[in-house]
Amino acid sequence: MPLPLGFTGARLDRADQLRTNEAAFAAALADPRATCLALDGIDFVPGEGGGLRWQPLDPADERAPILLGIDEAGAPRFVREAAAGVRVDARSRTVMRLLPLLSTEEAALYGGARSLVDWHARHRYCAVCGSPTVLIRGGWGRRCGNCNAEHFPRVDPVVIMLAEYGDRVLVGRQPGFPPRFFSALAGFVEPGESLEEAVARELFEEAGIHVSEVTYVASQPWPFPSSLMIGCRAVATGAALTLDTTEIEAAMWVDRAEVHAALAGDMGAPFMAPPPLAIARYLLEDWVG
Q1: Helices 256-263 and 279-288, axial angle in degrees (round to 10)
Q2: How far apart, in Å, do the first and last CA atoms of the chain sit?
Q3: Are residues 279 and 188 in the same domain?
Q4: What pairs with residue 220 in β-bridges?
Q5: What's the sign of the alpha-carbon dihedral 243, 248, 249, 250?
Q6: How many structural domains is the chain composed of?
Q7: Is residue 90 a contact partner of residue 156, using CB atoms and an 8 Å limit?
Q8: With contact defined as beta carbons under 8 Å apart, do 218 and 231 qualify?
Q9: Distance (Å, rounded) from C-alpha 52 to C-alpha 61?
Protein backbone atom coordinates (compact mmCIF):
# COMPACT_ATOMS: atom_id res chain seq x y z
CA MET A 1 0.00 0.00 0.00
CA PRO A 2 1.74 3.23 -1.13
CA LEU A 3 -0.42 5.34 1.20
CA PRO A 4 -2.23 4.45 4.45
CA LEU A 5 -5.88 3.52 4.09
CA GLY A 6 -8.48 5.86 5.57
CA PHE A 7 -8.47 6.02 9.39
CA THR A 8 -5.02 4.39 9.56
CA GLY A 9 -1.57 5.91 9.99
CA ALA A 10 -1.80 7.63 13.39
CA ARG A 11 1.73 8.26 14.65
CA LEU A 12 0.75 7.98 18.30
CA ASP A 13 2.21 5.83 21.07
CA ARG A 14 -0.87 4.29 22.69
CA ALA A 15 1.11 4.19 25.96
CA ASP A 16 -0.41 1.05 27.41
CA GLN A 17 2.06 1.31 30.31
CA LEU A 18 0.25 4.46 31.53
CA ARG A 19 -3.20 2.89 31.56
CA THR A 20 -2.61 0.74 34.64
CA ASN A 21 -0.18 3.04 36.46
CA GLU A 22 -2.27 5.54 38.41
CA ALA A 23 0.66 7.79 39.26
CA ALA A 24 1.89 7.91 35.66
CA PHE A 25 -1.65 8.56 34.38
CA ALA A 26 -2.07 11.40 36.87
CA ALA A 27 1.26 12.83 35.73
CA ALA A 28 0.07 12.72 32.11
CA LEU A 29 -3.09 14.61 33.08
CA ALA A 30 -0.99 17.24 34.86
CA ASP A 31 1.48 17.58 31.99
CA PRO A 32 1.26 21.21 30.75
CA ARG A 33 1.59 19.92 27.18
CA ALA A 34 -1.49 17.68 27.52
CA THR A 35 -4.35 18.47 25.16
CA CYS A 36 -7.90 17.23 24.63
CA LEU A 37 -9.64 16.61 21.30
CA ALA A 38 -12.59 18.97 20.81
CA LEU A 39 -15.77 17.16 19.82
CA ASP A 40 -19.31 18.32 19.10
CA GLY A 41 -21.19 15.30 20.39
CA ILE A 42 -19.20 12.72 18.49
CA ASP A 43 -18.17 14.78 15.46
CA PHE A 44 -14.87 16.67 15.45
CA VAL A 45 -14.73 20.46 15.67
CA PRO A 46 -12.55 21.84 12.83
CA GLY A 47 -9.60 23.96 13.92
CA GLU A 48 -8.58 27.25 12.39
CA GLY A 49 -6.58 25.50 9.67
CA GLY A 50 -9.32 23.00 9.01
CA GLY A 51 -7.75 20.11 10.96
CA LEU A 52 -8.55 18.76 14.40
CA ARG A 53 -8.88 21.19 17.29
CA TRP A 54 -6.86 20.35 20.40
CA GLN A 55 -7.57 22.25 23.61
CA PRO A 56 -5.88 22.41 27.03
CA LEU A 57 -7.38 20.04 29.58
CA ASP A 58 -10.02 21.91 31.58
CA PRO A 59 -9.83 20.83 35.25
CA ALA A 60 -13.42 22.01 35.73
CA ASP A 61 -14.71 19.54 33.13
CA GLU A 62 -16.25 16.64 35.08
CA ARG A 63 -16.33 14.25 32.13
CA ALA A 64 -13.79 11.46 32.51
CA PRO A 65 -10.63 11.80 30.36
CA ILE A 66 -9.64 8.99 28.00
CA LEU A 67 -5.96 8.66 27.11
CA LEU A 68 -5.48 8.36 23.36
CA GLY A 69 -1.71 8.19 23.65
CA ILE A 70 1.51 10.18 23.52
CA ASP A 71 2.44 12.11 20.37
CA GLU A 72 5.88 12.27 18.77
CA ALA A 73 6.79 15.34 20.84
CA GLY A 74 5.99 13.48 24.08
CA ALA A 75 2.70 15.33 24.74
CA PRO A 76 -0.27 13.36 26.11
CA ARG A 77 -3.41 13.40 23.96
CA PHE A 78 -6.86 12.89 25.48
CA VAL A 79 -10.52 12.90 24.60
CA ARG A 80 -13.37 13.10 27.13
CA GLU A 81 -16.32 10.76 27.38
CA ALA A 82 -19.69 12.15 26.35
CA ALA A 83 -21.69 13.84 29.10
CA ALA A 84 -24.33 11.68 30.77
CA GLY A 85 -27.66 11.99 29.00
CA VAL A 86 -26.14 13.13 25.71
CA ARG A 87 -27.31 10.94 22.84
CA VAL A 88 -24.44 9.64 20.74
CA ASP A 89 -25.35 8.43 17.25
CA ALA A 90 -22.12 6.80 16.13
CA ARG A 91 -23.68 5.45 12.93
CA SER A 92 -24.32 8.99 11.73
CA ARG A 93 -22.00 9.94 8.87
CA THR A 94 -22.76 13.66 8.82
CA VAL A 95 -19.07 14.25 9.56
CA MET A 96 -18.10 12.67 6.23
CA ARG A 97 -18.28 16.06 4.49
CA LEU A 98 -15.69 17.42 6.96
CA LEU A 99 -13.26 14.49 6.78
CA PRO A 100 -11.47 15.82 3.66
CA LEU A 101 -10.27 18.67 5.91
CA LEU A 102 -8.15 16.20 7.88
CA SER A 103 -4.74 14.78 7.10
CA THR A 104 -4.34 10.99 7.02
CA GLU A 105 -2.93 11.00 10.56
CA GLU A 106 -5.67 13.27 11.90
CA ALA A 107 -8.41 11.10 10.42
CA ALA A 108 -6.87 8.07 12.15
CA LEU A 109 -6.68 9.88 15.51
CA TYR A 110 -10.26 11.07 15.18
CA GLY A 111 -11.54 7.64 14.14
CA GLY A 112 -10.09 5.96 17.22
CA ALA A 113 -11.37 8.68 19.54
CA ARG A 114 -14.83 8.55 17.99
CA SER A 115 -15.12 4.79 18.48
CA LEU A 116 -13.99 5.03 22.11
CA VAL A 117 -16.42 7.84 22.99
CA ASP A 118 -19.26 5.86 21.42
CA TRP A 119 -18.33 2.66 23.27
CA HIS A 120 -18.28 4.41 26.65
CA ALA A 121 -21.65 6.05 25.95
CA ARG A 122 -23.17 2.60 25.32
CA HIS A 123 -21.57 0.87 28.31
CA ARG A 124 -22.46 3.03 31.28
CA TYR A 125 -24.18 0.03 32.84
CA CYS A 126 -22.91 -3.48 33.46
CA ALA A 127 -24.00 -6.16 30.99
CA VAL A 128 -23.84 -8.72 33.82
CA CYS A 129 -25.89 -7.12 36.62
CA GLY A 130 -27.09 -3.77 35.23
CA SER A 131 -25.28 -1.59 37.79
CA PRO A 132 -23.38 1.60 36.85
CA THR A 133 -19.81 1.20 35.59
CA VAL A 134 -16.79 3.49 35.89
CA LEU A 135 -13.79 4.07 33.63
CA ILE A 136 -10.60 2.09 34.25
CA ARG A 137 -7.24 1.68 32.46
CA GLY A 138 -7.07 5.29 31.35
CA GLY A 139 -10.39 5.01 29.57
CA TRP A 140 -9.71 1.69 27.85
CA GLY A 141 -12.13 -0.27 29.99
CA ARG A 142 -14.97 -0.05 32.50
CA ARG A 143 -15.60 -1.82 35.81
CA CYS A 144 -18.91 -2.52 37.47
CA GLY A 145 -19.26 -0.96 40.91
CA ASN A 146 -21.44 -3.85 42.07
CA CYS A 147 -20.12 -7.16 40.70
CA ASN A 148 -16.65 -5.93 39.64
CA ALA A 149 -17.09 -7.30 36.10
CA GLU A 150 -14.70 -5.63 33.68
CA HIS A 151 -15.67 -4.62 30.15
CA PHE A 152 -13.35 -3.58 27.31
CA PRO A 153 -13.88 -1.88 23.93
CA ARG A 154 -14.73 -4.30 21.17
CA VAL A 155 -14.15 -4.17 17.43
CA ASP A 156 -16.70 -5.72 15.05
CA PRO A 157 -15.03 -7.63 12.16
CA VAL A 158 -16.62 -7.01 8.76
CA VAL A 159 -15.59 -8.69 5.52
CA ILE A 160 -15.75 -6.50 2.41
CA MET A 161 -14.97 -8.19 -0.87
CA LEU A 162 -14.77 -8.04 -4.62
CA ALA A 163 -15.96 -11.17 -6.35
CA GLU A 164 -14.14 -11.78 -9.65
CA TYR A 165 -15.45 -13.64 -12.67
CA GLY A 166 -13.25 -13.57 -15.72
CA ASP A 167 -12.16 -9.97 -16.23
CA ARG A 168 -15.03 -8.48 -14.26
CA VAL A 169 -15.82 -7.76 -10.61
CA LEU A 170 -19.12 -7.52 -8.78
CA VAL A 171 -20.36 -4.25 -7.28
CA GLY A 172 -23.68 -3.63 -5.57
CA ARG A 173 -25.76 -0.97 -3.89
CA GLN A 174 -28.05 -0.78 -0.88
CA PRO A 175 -31.37 1.12 -1.02
CA GLY A 176 -29.98 3.99 1.07
CA PHE A 177 -26.98 4.69 -1.16
CA PRO A 178 -26.80 7.94 -3.18
CA PRO A 179 -27.89 7.70 -6.84
CA ARG A 180 -25.46 5.75 -9.07
CA PHE A 181 -23.30 4.78 -6.07
CA PHE A 182 -22.06 1.17 -6.11
CA SER A 183 -19.53 -0.47 -3.82
CA ALA A 184 -18.03 -3.80 -2.81
CA LEU A 185 -20.34 -6.17 -0.97
CA ALA A 186 -19.80 -6.52 2.78
CA GLY A 187 -21.14 -8.17 5.91
CA PHE A 188 -20.37 -8.89 9.55
CA VAL A 189 -18.39 -11.98 10.51
CA GLU A 190 -20.63 -14.27 12.54
CA PRO A 191 -19.63 -16.40 15.56
CA GLY A 192 -18.06 -19.70 14.63
CA GLU A 193 -16.84 -18.85 11.12
CA SER A 194 -13.54 -17.89 9.53
CA LEU A 195 -13.00 -14.83 7.37
CA GLU A 196 -13.01 -17.03 4.27
CA GLU A 197 -16.29 -18.62 5.31
CA ALA A 198 -17.81 -15.21 6.02
CA VAL A 199 -16.84 -13.97 2.54
CA ALA A 200 -18.35 -17.03 0.88
CA ARG A 201 -21.54 -16.86 2.96
CA GLU A 202 -22.13 -13.15 2.40
CA LEU A 203 -21.62 -13.40 -1.37
CA PHE A 204 -24.04 -16.31 -1.56
CA GLU A 205 -26.64 -14.71 0.73
CA GLU A 206 -26.58 -11.29 -0.93
CA ALA A 207 -25.84 -12.15 -4.57
CA GLY A 208 -26.47 -15.87 -4.92
CA ILE A 209 -22.97 -16.69 -6.16
CA HIS A 210 -20.53 -19.38 -5.05
CA VAL A 211 -16.79 -18.77 -4.77
CA SER A 212 -13.89 -21.18 -5.15
CA GLU A 213 -11.14 -19.24 -3.39
CA VAL A 214 -10.72 -16.22 -1.10
CA THR A 215 -7.61 -14.06 -0.64
CA TYR A 216 -6.91 -11.30 1.87
CA VAL A 217 -6.00 -7.83 0.54
CA ALA A 218 -5.94 -5.24 3.36
CA SER A 219 -7.84 -4.02 6.43
CA GLN A 220 -9.17 -0.70 7.71
CA PRO A 221 -10.77 0.61 10.92
CA TRP A 222 -14.21 2.10 10.23
CA PRO A 223 -15.51 4.23 13.15
CA PHE A 224 -19.22 4.02 12.31
CA PRO A 225 -19.35 2.90 15.05
CA SER A 226 -16.39 0.55 15.55
CA SER A 227 -15.75 -1.94 12.76
CA LEU A 228 -12.63 -3.49 11.30
CA MET A 229 -13.15 -3.78 7.55
CA ILE A 230 -11.27 -6.81 6.22
CA GLY A 231 -10.80 -6.46 2.48
CA CYS A 232 -10.73 -9.60 0.35
CA ARG A 233 -11.06 -10.92 -3.18
CA ALA A 234 -12.96 -14.03 -4.15
CA VAL A 235 -13.19 -15.99 -7.40
CA ALA A 236 -16.78 -16.72 -8.43
CA THR A 237 -17.72 -20.02 -10.07
CA GLY A 238 -20.47 -18.40 -12.14
CA ALA A 239 -21.91 -15.03 -13.14
CA ALA A 240 -25.64 -15.57 -12.56
CA LEU A 241 -26.96 -13.35 -9.75
CA THR A 242 -29.82 -13.93 -7.33
CA LEU A 243 -30.10 -10.84 -5.12
CA ASP A 244 -31.37 -10.64 -1.57
CA THR A 245 -33.42 -7.49 -2.18
CA THR A 246 -33.75 -6.81 1.55
CA GLU A 247 -30.00 -6.13 1.53
CA ILE A 248 -29.03 -5.36 -2.08
CA GLU A 249 -31.07 -3.11 -4.34
CA ALA A 250 -28.97 -3.77 -7.44
CA ALA A 251 -25.70 -5.42 -8.45
CA MET A 252 -23.71 -5.75 -11.65
CA TRP A 253 -20.49 -7.11 -13.10
CA VAL A 254 -18.13 -4.38 -14.35
CA ASP A 255 -14.90 -4.66 -16.33
CA ARG A 256 -11.59 -2.85 -15.80
CA ALA A 257 -12.38 -0.03 -18.23
CA GLU A 258 -15.68 0.66 -16.43
CA VAL A 259 -14.03 0.58 -12.99
CA HIS A 260 -11.24 2.85 -14.20
CA ALA A 261 -13.81 5.35 -15.52
CA ALA A 262 -15.69 5.30 -12.22
CA LEU A 263 -12.51 5.88 -10.22
CA ALA A 264 -11.65 8.79 -12.49
CA GLY A 265 -15.04 10.40 -11.77
CA ASP A 266 -16.20 10.03 -15.38
CA MET A 267 -19.93 10.83 -15.49
CA GLY A 268 -20.22 8.38 -18.36
CA ALA A 269 -19.13 5.50 -16.12
CA PRO A 270 -21.84 2.96 -15.23
CA PHE A 271 -21.53 3.77 -11.51
CA MET A 272 -20.10 6.23 -8.98
CA ALA A 273 -17.14 4.85 -7.03
CA PRO A 274 -16.73 4.87 -3.23
CA PRO A 275 -14.92 7.87 -1.66
CA PRO A 276 -11.13 7.86 -1.11
CA LEU A 277 -11.40 7.12 2.63
CA ALA A 278 -13.24 3.83 2.08
CA ILE A 279 -11.43 0.52 1.71
CA ALA A 280 -13.94 -0.36 -1.04
CA ARG A 281 -12.24 2.21 -3.24
CA TYR A 282 -8.81 0.77 -2.43
CA LEU A 283 -10.05 -2.70 -3.40
CA LEU A 284 -11.20 -1.36 -6.76
CA GLU A 285 -7.95 0.55 -7.32
CA ASP A 286 -5.91 -2.51 -6.38
CA TRP A 287 -7.91 -4.71 -8.76
CA VAL A 288 -7.59 -2.27 -11.65
CA GLY A 289 -3.86 -1.98 -11.02
Answers
A1: 130
A2: 12
A3: yes
A4: 229
A5: negative
A6: 2
A7: no
A8: yes
A9: 20
The Cα–Cα gap between 277 and 5 comes to: 7
Using CA atoms, how far residue 39 sits from 79, 88, 94, in Å, is 8, 12, 13
What is the distance between the alpha carbons of residues 220 and 225, in angstroms, rounded to a whole number? 13
User: Smallest Cα–Cα separation from 137: which of 150, 146, 124?
Assistant: 150
Q: Please answer whether residues 195 and 230 qualify as being in contact, where contact means their C-beta atoms are separated by less than 8 angstroms.
A: yes
CA distance 202 to 170: 13
- CATH number of 220's domain: 3.90.79.10
Q: Which of 3, 6, 43 is nearest to 276 (CA)?
A: 6
- Residue 44 within a domain: yes
Q: Has residue 221 been placed in a domain?
A: yes
Residues 87 and 182 reside in one and the same domain:
no
Considering the domain boundaries, does residue 3 fall inside one? Answer: no
Q: For 135-173, b where at least 16 C-beta lie within 10 A, e where not — what string? A: bebbbbbbbbeeeeeebebeeeebbbbbbbbeebbbbbb
| pTM (2 d.p.) | 0.93
* CA dihedral (107, 280, 4, 189) positive or negative: positive
* Angle, CA of 277, 283 and 285, to the nearest 5°: 85
- Residue 48's pLDDT band, with cuts at 50, 70 and 90, is confident
Q: Is residue 130 part of a domain?
A: no
d(CA 214, CA 162): 10
The mean per-residue pLDDT over the stretch 171-195 comes to 97
Domain range for 168 is 156-288
* pLDDT tens-digit readout, 243-281: 999 999 999 999 999 999 999 999 999 999 999 999 999
87 — phi, psi (to 5°)?
A: -80, 130
